Amino acid sequence: MSTARKPRSIKRWLKLKYTQLMRAPGGPSFVALGFSIGMAVEMFTLPTYGLAFFLIFPLIYWLRASIAGALVGFVVGKIIFIPVAFINSMVGGWVLPDHLRIHFHFLPHWLNRILFMNLKLVIGGIIDGVLLGALFYFPVKLSIQYVAEKRREKRKLRRIGVEASPIPD
Questions:
Q1: How far apart are CA 154 and CA 152, in angstroms?
Q2: DSSP string, the chain
Q3: Residue 43: which of 2, 89, 98 has the closest Cα?
Q4: Which of 9, 59, 150, 158 is the most buried (most CB within 10 A)?
Q5: Residues 43, 81: contact at Cβ < 8 Å?
Q6: Torsion angle of alpha carbons 127, 128, 134, 139, nearest 10°?
Q7: What are the pLDDT digits (tens) for 45-85?
Q8: Do residues 93 and 124 touch, judged by C-beta distance below 8 A?
Q9: Distance from C-alpha of 144 to C-alpha of 150, rounded to nearest angstrom
Q10: What does the alpha-carbon distance between residue 21 and residue 150 come to, in Å, rounded to a whole number?
């Protein structure tokens, strides 16, 4: 005989995951590094048709960062990707030499042009991704430290309040 289980609400599940992320055993730098890796990898994912996502796992292992933080960074990167894609393309155009062309004889001209635009997006995305990852590392680390400090103060005040309150008869 099985009892009907009440489904856990999405809001409650997200709050649990947020709490677990804030209390990660590696500390704020562990989570912030994972966030930065996820953000950096997302910046060159679209032109590689999602295959760059698999780059997250070896980078997380190699740099000893948080997988949950990386996935959050990856999702945030997805949200901001469209405006940043124009910048990625511009940066890729600045970095790649002017005489570089992609030309496969068996492909139509328009497809060769799309491949070149994707190359600009990948090169610009790698550069911008590393810059965005470095830029987001410190604010994420400081915000996690701030949340942890607030939690520590709240627990300390609660402990003092319990010790100072008189015991009811």
A1: 5
A2: --PPPPPPPHHHHHHHHHHHHHT-TT-HHHHHHHHHHHHHHHTTTGGGTTGGGGGHHHHHHHHT--HHHHHHHHHHHHHHHHHHHHHHHHHHHHHS-TT-----TTS-HHHHHHHHHHHHHHHHHHHHHHHHHHHHHHHHHHHHHHHHHHHHHHHHHHHHHHHHSPPP-
A3: 89
A4: 59
A5: yes
A6: 180
A7: 766 677 777 888 999 999 999 888 888 888 888 888 888 88
A8: yes
A9: 10
A10: 15
- For residue 43, the number of C-alpha atoms closer than 13 Å in the C-beta half-sphere is 26
Angle between helices 56-63 and 28-42 (to 10 degrees): 150
* Cβ proximity of 128 and 87 under 8 Å: yes
Give the distance, in angstroms, between the CA of residue 42 and the centroid of all CA atoms in the same chain: 8
**Chain centre to alpha carbon of residue 5:** 33
What is the model's pTM?
Answer: 0.76
Tens of pLDDT, residues 76-104: 888 888 888 888 888 888 887 767 666 66
Residue 29 contacts by C-beta under 8 Å, 6 or more apart in sequence?
A: 141
